[in-house]
Fold each of these.
Amino acid sequence: MNVIIITGASSGMGAEFALQLDNTFNSIDEIWLIARRKEAMLEVAQYLEHTTRVLDMDVTNEAHMKRLENLLAAEKPVIRMLVNCAGYGIMGDFSTSDIHDELGMIDVNCRALTQMTYLCLPYMKKNSRIIQLASSAAFLPQPNFAVYAATKSYVYSFSRALNQELRSKKIYVTAVCPGPVDTPFFDIAEKNGSTLAVKKLTMARADLVVEKAIADSYHKREKSVYGPWIKSFEAAAKAVPHSIILEIMRFLK
Ligand SMILES: NC(=O)c1ccc[n+]([C@@H]2O[C@H](COP(=O)([O-])OP(=O)(O)OC[C@H]3O[C@@H](n4cnc5c(N)ncnc54)[C@H](OP(=O)(O)O)[C@@H]3O)[C@@H](O)[C@H]2O)c1
């Protein structure tokens, strides 16, 4: 049985991946959707042609991850693609933030993504793909989004290294590094009142970001960066000393 597994599939880019991959693949038997909100995933599933399995689980919950591990061991699917979209960010001053929110970002964005990748890898074969949702926040430290940006640097670094490790098995990893994308992400990100200054200027459509990510994964690219603004941001983060960019960002705040 050939499957695609998508985490964070109840909303935003995860739901968009489900819709677009449903149209892209013919040789898939099932699409597995993973997130905590079952009702929202059932709604996404209504639009999918493929047989869909809705796995309501918290990716940070060890018992839930064990359930997935057991399911994989029982069904032994071939995982043709894993898309790790589950994640969140919360902006604001670190010293006055809620430490559970901060540690939760590390748990979901880094720990769970790593564990999910590890659980799925034994079921992947030649030409399988892994798509990891990093962020343009991976390119540079982000004051007022400090832990989130650090988690995404982790995802970016991990994904690029893993992509090299898996070359001999012909399994390809793509780190997706978008700037602001128009999804419910900001309902949580801005809950403490902070906003991203460049958001209005650079906000991208989720369907276009996902379309490019799927194309970049198909072409075995290690990275997917959507749009001229974010490509320029990445180039600047490489060319200009970070101390200068961080000063400009502080000024724009
Ligand atoms: N939107 C942006 O501007 C942007 C930019 C760059 C990168 N990203 C990254 O892209 C990814 C997708 O974000 P999005 O924009 O699509 O945001 P979103 O609409 O808020 O989606 C986040 C998804 O993560 C799931 N999730 C969160 N915590 C979870 C947990 N503990 N267990 C299982 N699922 C969990 C949520 O589902 P439930 O609540 O149902 O569990 C939801 O489906 C994230 O990793 C985000 O960091 C977003």
Note: Residues 2-252 form a domain with the Rossmann fold fold (CATH 3.40.50.720).
Amino acid sequence: MNRITFLGSGGARVMLSTQVLATGGMIISLDDTHFSLDPGPGALVNIFKYNINPTDLHGIIISHRHLDHSADVNVMIEAMTKSGLVKSGQVFAPSDALDTDPVILRYLRKYLKEITCLLPLSNYVINNLPFTTSMPHHHGNEETYGFLFHGRNTVLGYIPDTAFFPGLLDFYKADVLVVSMLRLEKSNVLHLSVNDVEVIIKSVRPRITILTHFGFQIYQKGPEKIADYLEEKTGLKVIAAADGLEVDF
Ligand SMILES: [Zn+2]
């Protein structure tokens, strides 16, 4: 079964600090591969709420080093590897998350089977699931990549934080698309707004779009209302993530 479990549906400054919405990122199960994607604060605490055992994970993938995407990576490594008793798991992260100002503690790295530095538009394999990185996203100084996960029957896309740029429309050809939609309105902050997401859905035409990583304004407006609005505007299925939501596809 293919499944996304949202360990949190919130993102950015206010949600990270208040935990009004949880910020643990997601657990992806695609074909026979299970991994943590962007384990922000609360990933480890929340994984147990949804009956997922961290030792069953094949690895952890980080899109960029901002805390709401990476703060729990160390405790997740500790749990996944049983504190290094079982050398296991793969971790993938951009170079600035590994070298420049690392978010992954060096003493934990030897617990892992493999640690890989992500490059733009490159191919990787986690367990036996191939995936491709996007071009660098427009997200300030932090090196940021999205992903296409090439399942046997389904391509799953994940668009993490970025300002809108047309290259997104060419790259993210996915059947199921997870989009970080932080902002209600377009702004100079390097994040996607509701209107940006509408443009993306109309162009990519995924079978299912799942909105997540909500900022406070989106939360106040109601993520489900916005999903309904986008579904009406695009004529395609749009779901709002929620803390603990499981989406089977
Ligand atoms: Zn970010």
Note: The pocket of zinc ion is lined by residues 64, 66, 139, 161 (CB under 6 Å).
